[in-house]
Amino acid sequence: MNMDGKTVLVTGSTDGVGRYVAARLAAAGAKVLIHGRDGARAKTLADEIRGHGFAEPIFYQADLSSLAGARQLAEAVTAGHKRLDLFISNAGIGSRSPGSERQTSADGYELRFAVNYLSGFLLAYLLLPLLKASAPSRIVNVASLGQHPLDFDDVMLTRGYSGSRAYAQSKLAQIMFTIDLASQLEGTGVTVNALHPATYMNTTMVREGGITPISTVEQGGDAILHLAVGDDVAASSGLFFNGMRPAQANPQAYDAVARNRLRALSLELAGLPPD
After folding, report:
1. H or E element that contains 21
2. Distance (Å, rounded) from C-alpha 18 to C-alpha 20?
3. Torsions phi, psi of 227, nearest 5?
4. Does some domain include residue 118?
5. CA trace torsion 252, 220, 232, 91 (10° rounding)
6. Which residues lie below 8 Å from residue 163, measured CB to CB, with a gap of 6+?
7. 196 lies in some domain
8. Which domain holds residue 226?
9. Which residues are catalytic?
10. How far apart are CA 79 and CA 7, in angstroms?
């Protein structure tokens, strides 16, 4: 995809792999909409991009641990731009940050499910009109190889909580949503794919979790960029990638009944009308 004149939104782009991806897209000529919670980090990135002679990114501050924050972000992007060619849903929290104990979001939902999955789900739905109007356009969901099946009797993990299970469940939910949304978007010119960018990249999330990094941010970022702009995947949709290659997700991702249950639940939790 030629990025000249394209508008892209990258959530969670003031640090880590999102920061790398945003900088690369700006260098390729895109108008980059960056998102995060920390205005100082956003300014550092904007100064860096501008210092290299590229168009300064536009910063949107939003806390995606609240559905109101996701709605405000979508409303601001929609109000400020006539097109959106690429949406990279990258914002997330790890299995051990901001702590390993069970926490809830502003809306009362299990925190990792809320931040890693539900806010991205809501953002995608709210941004679809803009993405469809800009077709051909793409959605990239940054997921993980760490996946755990959802227990629909206890999606919020009120019993036997573990941060690693919560993280893995939220990432599988992202992949299930990707497959589900791809079928809904057939014929619209909007594609959606998910990926595990790289294993334990050298990011704040990984280091805060007490894990020794084994991959670079550049490795993961290049895998995300491949799905975002690669010509060879322009017609691909509803797929899960491990790095640069198509891969198989957890079997629950391919269970249409489970995906339907997740979609119905997600629409209800996000305050969207049922199908």
Report:
1. helix 16-27
2. 5
3. -70, -30
4. yes
5. 60
6. 95, 96, 99, 100, 101, 112
7. yes
8. 7-269
9. 167
10. 14
